[in-house]
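TetR family transcriptional regulator, Solirubrobacter pauli. Tokens?
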Amino acid sequence: MRADAQRNLDRLKAAALDVFRERGLDSPLEEIAKRAGVSVGTLYNRFDSREGLIDAVVPELLVTNLAQVRQDADGADDAWTRAERYLHGLLEMQIANPALSDAIARAHPGSPEVIALCDAAVDECSRLLDAARAGGPEFGRDDVGAWLLANAALIKGGGADAARRMLAVLLAGLRAP
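Tokens:
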């Protein structure tokens, strides 16, 4: 690849990350091209579709953020606190990063790698909750997925505090005898 083409590619990826982080995966591609200092044609020449651009930048973002959520949860002394930290970590990740909230909510389901990473996060959450519940109320994998979708909807509507309250209610219900 020519040096100028590589620079354009690098700028497009960096701009896409910035715009997706700020506004989510539905951000205008024109905004990404503008921030990268290239034409929309150059963007489409490098990435044949929005999904191609998402595939190029979102998996690494997910891996990094989900690893941090997991690391924070792993520092807990007991199963309940690990599950609680993981749920809080996922929620705060969704609030802080609209791109990741969209990814988890499957706003763009065309990316097998993104889907696999999100499925792994849901599976991990479900596993941690299973370990924490030990005979308590049932809250399975499908429930985790529904909770993550509800978070995404609340956050998009400007309701980060509402999403936090919903998590507090959910955890209180799971904690109840």
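The chain has one domain: 1-175.
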